[in-house]
Structure formats: structure tokens, C-alpha cells
Write a structure and sequence with these properties.
- There is one protein chain.
- This protein is an alpha/beta fold and about 210 residues long.
- Helices cover about 40% and strands about 15% of the residues.
- It has helices spanning about 5-20, 80-85, 90-95, 140-170, 180-195, 200-210; strands spanning about 25-35, 55-60, 65-75, 105, 115, 120, 130.
- Strand 4 and strand 5 form a beta hairpin.
- It is globular and about 60 Å long.
- Belongs to the HARBI1 family.
- This is DDE Tnp4 domain-containing protein.
- It is found in: Nucleus.
């Protein structure tokens, strides 16, 4: 799956702002553990925090629940942050070579000056120049609580995308006994298919349900 180019990122950001009201957002990122049967002599490599063995599917999703970036094959013991750090996409995100659109002024927030285009993730991810996560802690100011709510709302697209993928393919709901390499290839193909097909009726229903709340 080719990584989006500048104009692709720009189009993703425009649609995410229109549908999810989060400006300068080029996608939501998350990781999903896909359960596997541990290979012989693999030790704790694939053993995750849920006490199962898994591969990590790391994905960036757009406003239509379509996969735009996929990295498959991270060891189950890795956190989402670790999976991102160990991926080629994570390296590009960190070194600024993703060809994201230039920093822009957000209408209504001119006082903040030029702001970068960003991905949104949960608290498992690091805070980077182009990756936002919620403010930590309980006793937050009103502004920070509103920000966290808006970020969590925009991040729902990746949770919905994983839900749609799991509902369509049984391999996401049961232990697979193929090798990790074959499992990774299958995951990549299925994610690529979800990234090239138009929104399904199921994804449109997800959108309608969320927007009606």
C-alpha cells in the first residue's frame, strides 16, 4: 500500500475536518493485536499484555474508515508506541519525510499562527510534531477537556475501521495457526483491500450512528 502523497494528505485532512470537525488532521492511528499461535522457540516475542500471542497491525485511517497506511508484523510484546517507532512509517513521521502539507493557519485561530498537519492517536502513542495524543491526567482545564473530547471523537474512525475489518473477516476473531509471515501477508492484503474499496454500507451506517449521538 503506497503512502499518501501531499495532495492525498490534503484531501484526507479536508474530509476529516468536514465530517469530524478536527482541523489539520491527516488521519487517525492505532494498533490492533491479531491473535496467532506462537511459533516454536519464539519465547515471549509475541506474548502481549492480554496474555495471548499476537502480531500488531498498525494503521492510519481516513474519514471514510479506509486504511491509508498499514504496517503489519510488529511483535505482540510491543506497545503501539514501540510498533510505530520500529516501523518505516514511524521513521518517516519522526524525520519529517512524509510529504505532509505545509503548516497552515486555522480559520478562527489565527492567533496561534502556523500549525502543522497531524495524526491523532490515543495515550499509548508518543507526542510528536505531527502526532497528537490526549492531555494526561484527571484535573484538566476546560480547554484541555474539550480538546481531549474532540481528539477522541476524530479518533473513532480508526476504531470503527478495525471493527468493520473484524466483522468482515473471521481471521481477526480467532487464533490462526499459519506462520507469522503468512499471517502478516494476509493482514496486509486485507487491509489493502479495505484501503482501496469505497465505503461500504456498514461504514456509512457507522457514520450515521455516530453523527446522530
Amino acid at each position: 500500500m503506497p503512502v499518501p502523497q501531499t495532495e492525498d494528505w490534503r484531501a484526507i485532512a479536508a474530509e476529516l475536518q468536514e465530517r469530524w470537525n478536527f482541523p489539520n488532521c491527516v488521519g487517525a492511528i492505532d494498533g490492533k493485536h491479531v491473535v496467532i499461535q506462537a511459533p516454536a522457540n519464539s519465547g515471549s516475542l509475541y506474548f502481549n499484555y492480554k496474555s495471548t500471542h499476537s502480531l500488531v497491525l498498525l494503521a492510519v485511517v481516513d474519514a471514510q474508515y479506509l486504511f491509508r497506511v498499514v504496517d503489519v508484523g510488529g511483535f505482540g510484546r510491543c506497545s503501539d508506541s514501540g510498533s510505530l517507532q520500529n516501523s518505516a512509517f514511524g521513521e518517516s513521521l519522526k524525520d519529517g519525510s512524509l510529504q505532509l502539507p505545509p503548516d497552515t493557519v486555522i480559520p478562527g485561530a489565527e492567533r496561534l499562527g502556523l500549525l502543522p498537519h497531524v495524526l491523532v492517536g490515543d495515550e499509548a502513542f508518543p507526542l510528536l510534531d505531527n502526532l497528537l495524543r490526549p492531555f494526561p491526567g484527571r484535573h484538566l482545564t476546560r480547554e484541555k477537556r474539550v480538546f481531549n473530547y474532540r481528539l477522541s471523537w476524530a479518533r473513532l474512525v480508526v476504531e470503527c475501521a478495525f471493527g468493520i475489518l473484524s466483522s468482515q473477516w473471521r481471521m481477526f476473531r480467532r487464533v490462526i495457526t499459519t506462520s507469522p509471515e503468512d499471517k502478516a501477508k494476509n493482514l496486509a492484503v486485507l487491509s489493502w483491500e479495505r484501503g482501496t474499496m469505497h465505503s461500504t454500507e456498514g461504514s456509512r451506517t457507522q457514520q450515521n450512528n455516530l453523527e446522530s449521538k
